Prior knowledge:
CATH superfamily of the largest domain in chain A: Tandem AAA-ATPase domain
Radius of gyration of chain A: 27 Å
Mean pLDDT of chain B: 88
Largest sheet of chain B: 7 strands, mixed
Distance between the termini of chain A: 24 Å
Strand content of chain B: 25-35%
CATH topology of the largest domain in chain A: Rossmann fold
Mean pLDDT of chain A: 84
Distance between the termini of chain B: 33 Å
Number of domains of chain A: 2
Low-confidence stretches of chain A: 530-534
Shape of chain A: elongated
Number of helices of chain B: 9
Largest interface: A-B, 71 and 80 residues
Number of domains of chain B: 2
Oligomer: heterodimer
Shape of chain B: flat
Amino acid sequence: MKVQINQHLVSECQELKEQTSCDWRTFKQACQITKMKSTQGERLASLSFLPELQPMPHQKEAAEKVLHEMHGRAILADEVGLGKTIEAGLILKELMIKGLVKKVLILTPSSLIRQWEQEMNQKFYIPARAKHRSYDWTLYEVVVTSIDLAKKSPHQEEILQQDYDMLIVDEAHRLKNSQTKNYQFVKKIKATYCLLLTATPIQNKLDEIYNLVQIVRPGLLGEKKAFKQQLKKDPETQEAMKQLIQTSMVRNLRKETQNQWTERNIETIYAQFSDEEQAFYNSIDNEQSNHALTQLTMKRGFCSSREACFQMLAKNQTQHAIDRINELKELPQHAKAIQMMNFVKELGEKCIIFTEYKATQIYLQWLLHQHGLLAVTYNGDFRKSKKQWMLHLFETKADVLITTDAGAEGLNLQHCRNMIHYDLPWNPMKLEQRIGRIHRYGQTRNVQIFYMILKNTVDEKILNLLYDKLDLFEGVVGELDQILSDIGVGNFEDEMKEILSESASDQEASIKLDNLIEVAKSHQSERKAINETS
Amino acid sequence: MKQADIQPFLIEFFTSRQASIVEKSDGILTVKLTEQLDEQLMNRPFYWQYVKKLGKVGETMSVTFITDEEKRDQQKGEWIHFGSPRLDQIFHIIQREGAYTVLYEGCQSNSTTKTPLHPWLICNIRVKYRGFLSKDELVSVGIRLIDGTMRFQMMDEIEHKNFVSSVPNFCFTLPTIISTERAVERVTEELQQRIKQKSTHFVNKSHRLYEREMDMLKKLIIDDEKDDAEHQHAKDQIFERLYPQVDLEWINLGYFYVSEQMSKELIS
Lengths: 534, 268
């Protein structure tokens, strides 16, 4: 076997000899500095420069792997809450210390700009600055900004003129579609090193991973057509493709790093509709005019709040809708909301409440306020500064943060340990995303998770059907995205809705869901078997 | 080196280069630069070009370096830490200046017996492995320029010895028998030999992965006619990334004249 040795030591030594001779101390220091900047074995040089930072083993390993085996171009795809930012920071710091990286562009959703700026400065002593309109792109070496700003003219043109040493894209699943402007823009940015961060590298189709790999390692997976053809072939080829993908992707799963985590306790809290509410709820079934799916959506809304239900009805201008709205107005305070409010009071600790509806958000805030609890809201519609302010209030003053899923992406809220799922999401992956906000790197206490469930409603159905089967999903949840796309079931949420609305009985729905899980699991054990034999 | 070590390091760096310390307290250091340091560090070539053209003496800058994070807000100045561009700049200066030396063992001698000093060439070389993983190895080889005897880990041996920049009194240097070029050639040959011997695992694994990716690439190319340049680019990329390669780079090079006693110690 051959190894190629590149050297011009003799000719270069002539040049060295023309220099002025230095003193003994400088000669020694030159050696020490080179040593400091070198990769000695597998160790990270940056760790000795960051004495306060104590990365977890999987974070160190990820950084080492990206630096030494992936040559600084990779997809960091750890599950939520495992500290992808820490990994990216370590990699960046290491390359900066070695003098390989100076100019850096960090693209994040705008809600996370401040967080990145702070973490880079405080944890890594990396002088990152958020881009501001008052200065030029070239003023600072390390710039944090949002894709939305960066892709606008004239910023786009200016950025594309730069030669960056490192490009970091957070929440990179936004780049999964190669037809979008975001994708095409990021693909054109010139950077020697490149990190894409995402907890969900594949949401629906394997194509998506192709597109991400195409950014970090163009050409690695060949042409798209050929890639797709290969995937349709035998499992062996598929496995080879996966290994190929793994040469540019790091993915740690929570269960693999489990022993380092604090405990997670899950509890269900039941509420019961008042008679009037129950009557209204039951009458939704009798609305002949509506499709089964619409009825289901309406029921879910009503289980959350009158306001959420009102918003749905208000879209229709029919007499029927107006009558229903008038009925709604007569109803008392929502039973689930009251139950939850009492629970939060008893709890006596800060907590985060997740809801699926913005209308519910406002209602809950009002209700809590009426009972002396200070609640702040948070959702995807807020401007950046408002988001920052709300988070600040939650950390310093407020008792409760009420948020939607759209708002909570990427947030670090480990200062809080209680989470209430006021509405249950269809997709267990979403649940994991939510819990990851508090059960993450840096959480020191055991976390408490609560489900709020209305008895004899769709809430309970979802709980029984889906959440009681979560242990069946055990070991699949983390990979659910991948498995579902492998077996050609596009979207878990749609699948669930269909099962629920089209089944004649609960038993039927349960059996259908069991089937889905069975298929997912058998598919997974196949994958495992292949992994073990290879 | 830790954050706390930066200030002493800076003080040494600046004083040994004749800059004057204006102010020094815990975590804060103000230095009045020399002309040379100003040109090297402050990046204002137009100013110096202008001043020199007019035949005037330029005004060098004073810089305040803050090494204690808590004092960042208290005083105006540069926050200096590992990974900061300024420290890197200083490191580069040292690496550049420290690339070559001629030194003599600082030995005590009296007039009655003149001490001969034996010539050694010290080659400090960075060995960069690139393949399935990348890693660096620093080697320090000393070669006696009289008989070609080689010694590895040379810097570790002499680290605590005293060397001076001019021939000490009552000492004289023995002439070299082996030329520098020949000596470097021999060091290089020896190094290549050693690298080949000890890196079989690295080489095998890199080859295996290299070939696997190349095979995969072949399967992925459907239409050989189309866009040949792109395929070649993909092949080149795989080669660059995985084919086992080793780069040898100079860190620095020095002639060291040492007493017979030390010379013997080094060989034993």
